[in-house]
Amino acid sequence: MTDVTLSNEEIARYSRHLILPEFGMAAQRKLKQGSVLLIGTGGLGSPLALYLAAAGVGHIGLVDFDVVDESNLQRQIVHGTATIGVAKTESAKRRLLDLNPHIEISTFETQITSANAIELMQPFDVIVDGTDNFPTRYLTNDASVMLGKPNVYGSIFRFEGQATVFSPKDGGPCYRCLYPEPPPPGLVPSCAEGGVLGVLPGVIGGIQANEAIKLLAGIGETLVGRLLLYDALSMRFRELKLRRDPKCPVCGENPTVTELIDYEQFCGIVPEVTTLSNQYEITPKELAALMDSAERPYLLDVRNPYEVEIAAIPGTDKLIPVDQLPERLSELDSAREMVIYCRSGARSGRAVELLKGAGFRKVKNLVGGVLRWSDDIDPTMPKY
User: What are the residues whose beta carbons fall under 8 Å from the beta carbon of 329, sequence distance 6 or more?
Assistant: First the structure.
């Protein structure tokens, strides 16, 4: 890289960096020369992008294919009410350039896949994983290892988070050394199902930004070989030592994964098409027509109790969280017509499959759950 200079405006902007003896002009110039590809501009990506931009990272790439939704704003602080419905990459770009007009922002409004990952990641010095799903985490890891680039990792759920830097070229492990295989599909709920404390991604995303800045500036000790665990409820940090697995299929001594694979298949995720036949499904409009008739079905809610406080379909007969359903089948009458619902139709779909396996035949899944009920039947019902 050719050496770069800082303008008088940049010197004034970054002056609090420049007067740090451990940082100074040299580190700030490295930041200006440096580049980061941020995969995801949601919960983790929001604070990450803000701090990387504010710090003066010269080129930031943003990868996301989602649009801003009102439910994002509790934690995704790079976005705002004015950009609801706007592509997240564009929303973030507007905010980041307002924060710091001296940097370059590249947007990639696309889903990162095995077909485009190498091309997207190749031009950048550091890869930052701000994603929330296993296929993308494994893809990001494998592509980073193959390109020899550090992967600044973070994840969050409910009140807990973790962060590290995966960089086998620096002697540390990769993501697959820590998690060789993904958990079974459906075992780990998403943040949409399990929730997340709004400030949690700020803490973890800030740690990731700190690590990316140190990597680019060449200062300090990074989290390579260390996994930082954070519990927001108890306000405690813990640290675990991580070691590279010599048998790792990606970064080990004899790697067996030498090209990017089908990560949805690897993680056991099938396209989001229900496996239930039409006879086991019912739409909100069809259910509403039956609720006041002699054919009114038994209505079973399989969400968690605290979700009922937010919204529930009037006339619900029973609440049994889906995880408790196998032990509480005796509370249900297999002879009755039954409609099962949840927030979006995913958990209730699993419940219908479980009940079918237990001999229930008169069961149907409410397509779209309470979210679609709000859209089609009762717009006053809040969404969450």
Answer: 355, 358
pTM of the model: 0.79
Q: Which residues are known catalytic residues? A: 191, 342
d(CA 71, CA 375): 16
pLDDT at 195: 82
Rounded to 5 degrees, φ, ψ at 221 are -110, 125
CA distances from 37 to 49, 107, 152, 209, 376 (A): 10, 10, 10, 12, 40
The rounded radius of gyration (Å) of the Cα atoms in the chain is: 24
Contacts of 293 (CB under 8 A, 6+ apart): none
* Tokens read off for 221: 């000790």
pLDDT tens across 344-376, in order? 999 999 999 999 999 999 999 999 999 999 999
Q: Count the alpha carbons within 13 Å of 96 in the hemisphere toward its beta carbon.
A: 30
Q: Which of 177, 159, 135 is nearest to 229 (CA)?
A: 159
Classified as helix, coil or strand, 97 is: helix
Q: Which residue has the tokens 């419940």?
A: 351
Start-to-end Cα distance in the chain? 48
Other residues' Cβ atoms within 10 Å of the Cβ of residue 342: 26
Query: Domains, the chain, ranges and CATH?
Result: 34-266 (3.40.50.720), 278-376 (3.40.250.10)
3-state helix, strand, coil in the chain (%, to 5): 40, 15, 45
Neighbouring CB atoms inside 10 A of 5's CB total: 9
Longest dimension (CA), the chain: 80
Q: Can you list the residues of the chain whose pLDDT is less than 50?
A: 1, 271-274
Helical segments of the chain, H only: 8-13, 15-18, 24-33, 45-55, 88-99, 117-121, 134-147, 175-178, 191-194, 200-217, 263-266, 284-291, 305-308, 346-357, 369-376
pLDDT digits (tens, 9 = 90+) for 292-312: 888 899 999 999 999 999 999
**Contact between residue 129 and residue 201 where contact means Cβ atoms under 8 Å apart:** no
Distance CA(48)–CA(128), nearest Å, equals 9
